[in-house]
């Protein structure tokens, strides 16, 4: 799944070019120590000063080539990995949009946030690190061959220390993976907590749960902080061990051994100094590769999680509910994660085609929650919601939302033009249909007075409009959709009595053969409804 994104034909050539550039840069890293060896042999020992210009020129050429390779490889990188990361995000979003809502609800909001942001970022870095590890490994092998050619004894001694380094690195990697996963889970729980706190702020205020939320906030931050420190301690332990081994033990020991070999005629000073230059690069590459191997473990888990989402099967056998006949809410129970009591307890409601029903109750009694359950945005802990006799999880959601129009309290407007916001109701609506819907919602005169009319950008959540204008625009969009069932959740609460009565009269005058469900706390708004259902607190 993720592999298919990276194997896409449009990326193959660029990835090959990136690998070639990185290999070329890796090869250039082997040349400065050789130039240093030439300098010692030819200039210092051999006193051939005429070759100084050649050696200095080689240094300059290598430096310029490394700079060019760095710039070029970065440009190629910018054309591959950010685009792949964005493509991965888009594929997950497409999967989310096509998955049934009840399948999505198996994941917390914080978990979904982590998968679509942090995990997709780790996916691109995972494949980048695999490339860099492979190139680094080749560089290490090439350097090892050069070390053997310079001095076999010193090379063998330095290589004998590698198994110890490998075993300790693998142990630290295992610990790092565990701590990384704890950190990620803690971050996911924190994200979920924050999303719930923002989404259910009304319930938190009405239930006076602010102190409890503050305590939970502090607890989550303590957990994240502890996991962060532990994961970084593992990384620090790995770096500290390798730095201590390479700098204090290996290098000092090699210099001592090299000095002894020179004294007994088994090596030369230039070869010893060049050996140490190559060994420094060898140790640096080894440190980089082991660091990347440690990081790769956590990123590997991200790849698994992204593949899990992309691999979820789509249920393509959901039923078309057909024309609306009935809506049955039977013995529904629901409570929010932040609440200590049930907001709905064994609630039942039945609505037939052509009914006009008002649902009333005090603030905080679950009216808006009921609408979200009917729309499938929330899943009840007990009970069922049946549209035309079908359970929510068996209905094709696209057909449901084409037959039923929901107007929630929360603003459903985007930072687009008025026309583009209206087209969410009917994407192919013509000018006449749009004007008629706005006239019925009593907002056409306001739109026509704007300098850009329907082309006016209204800001995120319609911030450039007043509360009443936002509600009328959303009502106009609902009129344009022309659904068989209209569900109002306090949809006229920001309107004055005159505008509210006018819109409701216009709506109900065009409701022949249609169904109307209004959730409200205003008794004046229910005068023309056939039936009133009370929700008790």
What key attributes describe this structure?
537 residues, alpha/beta, five-stranded parallel β-sheet, four-stranded antiparallel β-sheet, 19 helices, 9 strands, 9% strand, elongated
Short description:
The protein is an alpha/beta fold and 537 residues long. 64% of the residues lie in helices and 9% in strands.
Architecture blueprint of SSEs:
Blueprint: H1 2-6, H2 9-28, H3 31-45, H4 52-78, H5 81-98, H6 101-104, H7 109-150, H8 152-160, H9 162-199, H10 201-206, H11 210-263, H12 269-310, E1 326-334, E2 344-352, E3 356-360, H13 367-374, E4 382-387, E5 390-391, H14 397-403, E6 404-407, H15 418-422, H16 431-440, H17 444-449, H18 467-481, E7 485-489, H19 497-509, E8 515-520, E9 531-534
Parallel strand pairs: 3-8, 3-9, 6-7, 7-8
Antiparallel strand pairs: 1-2, 1-4, 4-5
Report on the architecture of this protein.
With 537 residues, the protein is of the alpha/beta class. The chain is 64% helix and 9% strand. The protein contains 19 helices and 9 strands. The strands form 2 sheets. It has a 5-stranded parallel sheet with strand order 6-7-8-3-9, sandwiched between helices. β4 and β5 form a beta hairpin. α7 runs antiparallel to α12. It is elongated and about 110 Å long.
